[in-house]
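pinging the channel bc i need a second pair of eyes. not urgent but kinda urgent?? the chain im working w is below, pasted from the shared doc
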Amino acid sequence: MDWQSLSISLQLAAATVLVLLPPALWLARWLARGGGARRALLEAGLALPLILPPTVLGYYLLTAFGNAAPLASAVTALLGQPLAFSFAGLVCASVLFNVPFMVLPIQRSFAAIAPELIDAALTCGLSPWRTFWRIELPLAWPGIVTAIVMTAAHTLGEFGVVLMVGGNIPGETRTVAIAIYDRVQAFDYAGAGTMAATLLALSLLALIVCVWLGRVPAHLRRPS
């Protein structure tokens, strides 16, 4: 088992969730509450990573992270290192290709909340922030946890975008998915099988959690 690669994958998954969750909560709630005529177009754009080949997305991200890009040059000056072929670049890429896995489940949870309940809370004197914190978040928590689990699991298993943007640098950008590919290339099928089984177990666990959350009784979702 390549513990270093697994550690990098876990760090990447954790960083992706921490960076993506706050804006995903805001965006998912905005989409669930309407979003206007731009909603359909925005939702299509958010879902694009689901159908776009990972190598295509990785190519465009690698181009955007190259030193010739103005934004990449500014980030390089700020961080002291380029985004391409670095862990910071992996985090940026991971955030982008995980947007649908984080936003869509949360959006469905917010959309399932009855608007009358929110209106009643506002009528009773709760501020919009307290309504969000005390009413909407407790009701949407199964979708939020599902989004976190799916995003983390997808990050652990991603190969194409990670390889294109981060390359295969030991101790920095070599994730467990890339390590499996390396072991197969070296005919180390036992090592590859161990790591593949680990990812399989983690993916199965993530799906079990998501299915269980989808069956949480309604009374357990109500705020206290």
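so Residues 3 and 142 are 31 Å apart (CA to CA). and The mean pLDDT is 82. — does that match what u expected or am i reading it wrong
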